[in-house]
């Protein structure tokens, strides 16, 4: 099983939004073979708490524009790691320190990578 076309489309929308707010190290995984609850993860790093919030706000706005509504949001208050669950996709926006510490990309490295639009990759 692979991520649905709709899930990949949502990942692209979210990635473009994150890139617009200078999200870093964007990486998307097709986790549909490993998890029954979602098709894809998008990982995004941010340099500070304020930037995490800006990225989250932009992702929510752009996904809302295409009709996607979050099922839940966690971590907004702390601003270090915000998880946005849209059912088909889950977006993780993490402060750079949390990204290095938790290393989700290592955990999901066996899953196929979803190619992101070049304009969505943000600064290296």
Report on the architecture of this protein.
- The protein is an alpha+beta fold.
- The protein has one domain: Beta Polymerase, domain 2, CATH 3.30.460.
- Helix content is 35%, strand content 23%.
- It has 4 helices and 5 strands; from the N terminus they run αββαβββαα.
- The protein has helices at 5-20, 49-65, 96-102, 104-107, and strands spanning 24-30, 40-46, 72-74, 81-85, 89-95.
- The chain has a 5-stranded mixed beta sheet with strand order 1-2-5-4-3.
- A hairpin with a 3-residue loop joins strand 4 (81-85) and strand 5 (89-95).
- Helix 1 packs across helix 2 (49-65).
- The longest helix has 17 residues, at 49-65.
Key descriptive features of the protein:
Beta Polymerase, domain 2; 124 residues; globular; 23% strand; alpha+beta; five-stranded mixed sheet; 35% helix; 4 helices
Please write out the topology.
Layout: H1 5-20, E1 24-30, E2 40-46, H2 49-65, E3 72-74, E4 81-85, E5 89-95, H3 96-102, H4 104-107
Helix pairs in contact: 1-2
Please bin the fraction of helical residues: 25-40%
Number of folding domains? 1
Class by helix and strand content? Answer: alpha+beta
User: DSSP strand (E) fraction?
Assistant: 15-25%
Please describe the biggest sheet, giving its number of strands, its sense, and whether it closes into a barrel.
5 strands, mixed
CATH topology: Beta Polymerase, domain 2
The whole-number mean of residue pLDDT values reads: 93
- What is the CATH superfamily? Beta Polymerase, domain 2
Strand order of the largest sheet: 1-2-5-4-3
CATH classification class: Alpha Beta
CATH architecture: 2-Layer Sandwich
Kindly, what is the distance between the CA atoms of the first and last residues, rounded to a whole number of angstroms? Answer: 31 Å
């Amino acid at each position: 099983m692979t991520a649905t076309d709709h899930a990949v489309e949502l990942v692209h929308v979210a990635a473009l939004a994150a890139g617009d707010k200078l999200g870093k190290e964007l990486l998307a995984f097709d986790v549909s073979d490993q998890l029954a609850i979602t098709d894809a993860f998008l990982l995004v790093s941010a340099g500070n708490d304020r930037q995490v919030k800006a990225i989250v706000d932009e992702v929510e706005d752009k996904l809302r524009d295409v009709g996607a509504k979050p099922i839940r949001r966690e971590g907004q208050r702390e601003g270090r790691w915000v998880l946005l669950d849209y059912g088909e996709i889950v977006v993780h926006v993490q402060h750079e320190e949390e990204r290095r510490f938790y290393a989700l990309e290592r955990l999901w490295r066996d899953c196929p990578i979803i190619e992101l639009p070049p304009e969505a990759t943000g600064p290296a």
